[in-house]
Structure formats: C-alpha cells, structure tokens
User: What shape does this take?
Amino acid sequence: MHASTPVPPSRAGRVVASHGRDATVVSDDGTRVHCRLQGRRLSVVCGDRVRWLAARTEGGAGVIVEVLARAKLLARISARGEPEPVAANLTQLVAVVAPLPAPDFGLCDRYLAAAEWTGLDACVVANKSDLEDADGVLDGPLADYARIGYPVLRASKRTEGGVEALRDRLAGGTSVLVGQSGVGKSSLTNALVPGVSAAVDEVSRASESGRHTTTTSSLYALPSGGELIDSPGVRDFSPPLPAPREVAGGYREIAALAAHCRFRDCLHRREPGCRVAAAVGESVSERRLESYRRLLALAEEMAARIRR
Ligand SMILES: Nc1nc2c(ncn2[C@@H]2O[C@H](COP(=O)(O)OP(=O)(O)O)[C@@H](O)[C@H]2O)c(=O)[nH]1
Ligand SMILES: [Mg+2]
Ligand SMILES: [Zn+2]
Assistant: This one.
C-alpha cells in the first residue's frame, strides 16, 4: 500500500438500532455514531458487533466495514419466506403476553421454541397485571409455562413491583422483548430504562397522527446491568424451522419424554406407545401438544418443499 494513503484503523462497536442501510453504533469508548453500511453485501441487526470507520457520509459520521461473527441469534421467516435475523448476540428471550389484546399462546410457544433451538434462556412476562383477566384466559397457559420450568413474571407499567423482579432477571445478559403488538413491550422498556422514551402505541391517538408504534428494534443498556432490546410488535412470528424430528426440541416437556416413547423416531402424533401423548393432562398440556403438532406439520411441509 502507498505510504501517503494510510488507512485509518477501524474501531469496534455495537449496533443499537438499524434501519435499512443506516445504523446507530455505540463505539467501545461509549460514543454514539450514525453509520452507513459499506457495500451492498453487509447487513446488520440490533446487537451486532461491528467494526466501523469514521467517515463523512450522507446523514452519518461513520461507515460499518465489517460485521463480526454472531453468537446466539433470533431469526424469523420474512414475508418473502426467507430466514431473516431479528437481533444478535442474545442471551435471553422474554416473551410478553397480556390479557389485552387477546393473547395468542401459539405465538408465544413459537418464540419459546425458537429460544430452545438457539439455546437462549427464556421467561414469560404476563404484563398489564393491573387489568382484570375476567375470563382467566391467561391462567391455564401461564400455569403450563411455570410447570415446565419457565419463570413467569407478572408485571405492569402501572405498578412497579413486577418491574423490579424483571429488572433482576435481565441483569447481566442481553435480552430481547418479544410478543404481539400492544402487549406493552415498549411500555416495559420505558419503565426499565430511565430516560428513554420508546414509542408506545396509544390507540386513542392513532386515528390522527399515525400509530406511535415501534418499527425497528433498539438496544438499551440497563442501569442495573444487562441490555434490553425492544422489538417491533408483530401480528405473527414464525421461526426458521429445523428438520421435523428436531421440532420437539423446541418444546422442553415433550423433549423430556421423547426417549420413553416406544419408537425412537416417534413424532408424538398418533404412534402407538407414545409417552408424550400418554402424558397429556399431566406433564404435557393438550394445548402445547397441539401447538407442537402444528409446528411439526409446518416443518414437514418445508422439508417436502426443499426435497422437491
Ligand atoms: N393497563 C395497562 N396498559 C398498558 C400496560 N402496558 C402497556 N399498556 C398500554 O398498551 C398499549 C400498547 O403498549 P406498547 O408499550 O406500545 O406495546 P408494544 O406494542 O408491545 O410495544 C398502550 O396503550 C399502553 O399504554 C400496563 O401494564 N397496563
Ligand atoms: Mg413497541
Ligand atoms: Zn412419542
């Protein structure tokens, strides 16, 4: 290389927000830099560790030149049917449910399955505990989650108690809040991270000014240690699926019994001697088993499509 054109050394940093070709990077010295992505091949998600160079760019002060290898990643299947990363370098998934909007526990199961396949810790937050769950729709599923070993925390932005317990669970790791739109992920973020104002979707205001809702993920440092990623609300979430026989690994109570089924390749559908089916009503809930079978059918469909 020519001696008169020294290449400036790149610096390390962390992506705390990204949108298209733009990203906000917190450099290892603590400064926030707006960066563009170099070239067409790079893409980043919240939580990525990157190398960047100071450079004047359109609307930015740096260029991301390299994305470092990702540790545990949350991914989803995009509208185009492609796997797409959601957030990187995670340690924990926090599935948020609430009495309102009407809960979709199949969705919650799919998030938890994604966490199991990836080896992420997971817990369930039952938010809006200030609201009455008149029909008790949360009770059964929450009891199931607790029985199979997921910590279940009750929280509310109105009453601080649950937020404290959640803060303790988040300390020391990098957690992503996931769940349906409107369950209160951004409100929890605001309660947990002093001084931030994550956009909260106030339905009453929506008519005039467009919905105030989360459109991209953002990563926040928690004062008590740990990091929190608030992710955009979703109507649906499908994780990239493993091979059909590995789907059960996403359902810990099913995986725990699989070794006791008569057939070693039992898929816990209608096989004779299936220990999982025999445990319905005891250590396996009917609802979770149905949810597993739906995911299994999807995984088989995908596998058939690939073979064709
Ligand atoms: N009653 C009650 N409402 C809440 C609570 N948390 C959030 N909300 C409301 O639920 C709506 C959606 O909240 P938001 O944080 O945007 O949900 P997100 O889509 O999951 O990020 C807003 O109108 C909030 O004011 C809570 O603990 N109790
Ligand atoms: Mg939000
Ligand atoms: Zn079985």
The first helix runs from residue 105 to 118. The longest strand covers residues 11-19. Helices lie at 105-118, 139-147, 161-170, 185-192, 203-209, 252-258, 275-278, 286-307.
